[in-house]
């Protein structure tokens, strides 16, 4: 029972507390704040304008990465704009990204405003006095080899091993979005890659973001130019499967310890072997049908199988932590020994899984904590911790009690994929 408390109580309470604390942002936040895995040095960017009565500066530590619908992380920075009292106009407005902004005015006549701009594609901020433009604010960037990693390839690209060549010294943000094309059962991938850079323009001079579509493993060669009109050939390559399969099946093997009681017979701490099967059929990107079958056989035979509908309920930390529900039913078999009768039970324990994706900043490595729980006449608990990629390690505890029958088992297993289809 100590193992069950270790797997269930502290994690369950802390996870509920975590999601309760973030509940408001989960429901109402309009933009997603991304993780800053590349440090942007504002010394790499310079502010350009001509009016000496206007002061413009970066607000320190104001860079925030925001995710758009194409999974592109956009660095937003706050610019503080201050207009001297010597600018006497009464109709001062600022125009940026098709919106007009009116600065506040202090008692001394100073006008000021903080504007959020896309550091990689800032556009032009125009200051008007009535209909006359009195200043234009632009941002320029430079390549500097002395700075370290500048490429932010989002975790949305990690499953496809996206590689970029030809932009080693440029700030670059890249996001991926997989689409399925074709009929159900014969779907193929279509990977939308979106990227942005403050130092790149298209051949016709248009600014980022740029988009391209990959459908196979051949690299796409893109001709762009920098701010000095020098040609840059960028190679973007992904590893994509020829087919997309919705059904995936895995198997797990490992040692377990079990304790059983049935009709006055008892057996404590007996070692045995476990055989686990896991299945998942994707309905959408956020929902699936899942099934499992767990068999433990020392002297006592125990089998536990379940079928569940799962969907993503909430996420935090830019989608790195995902909470999904498990709604369904289970069947359980227990046979104490060769002479005893088979005990069958049908259960309806509901559960959840909480997954921390790319944990420890290891791409495609996930840590999952999950649990099924039911109380009443039939007491059942199933809790597990899983770590890895398609190959994974799992610690599992299962407990069941009904009238004079009782079973507890815990152990470790190694899981690996064994098939896929449809």
Keywords:
422 residues, mainly beta, Immunoglobulin-like, Lipocalin, ten-stranded antiparallel beta barrel, 6% helix, disordered N terminus
Descriptive overview:
- 6% of the residues lie in helices and 57% in strands.
- The chain has 422 residues and is mainly beta.
- It has a ten-stranded antiparallel barrel. Strands 1, 3, 4, 5, 8 and 9 form a six-stranded antiparallel beta sheet that branches.
- The longest helix is centred in the N-terminal third of the chain and has 20 residues, at 2-21.
- The chain folds into three domains: 33-139, Immunoglobulin-like (Sandwich); 151-237, no CATH class; 245-421, Lipocalin (Beta Barrel), CATH 2.40.128.
- It is elongated and about 100 Å long.
- It has two helices and 30 strands.
- Strand 29 and strand 30 form a beta hairpin.
Provide a short characterization of the protein structure:
The chain has 422 residues and is mainly beta. The protein contains 2 helices and 30 strands.
Measure the end-to-end span.
41 Å
Computed over alpha carbons, the radius of gyration is: 29 Å
Number of helices: 2
Oligomer, anyone? single chain
Which term fits the overall shape? elongated
- The count of strands amounts to 30
CATH architecture verdict of the largest domain = Beta Barrel
CATH topology of the largest domain: Lipocalin
**Helicity level:** under 10%
Structural class based on helices, strands and sheet pairing: mainly beta
Q: Mean pLDDT, rounded to whole units?
A: 87
Give the tally of structural domains: 3
The CATH superfamily of the largest domain appears as OPCA outer membrane adhesin/invasin
Strand order of the largest sheet: 20-21-22-23-24-26-27-28-29-30
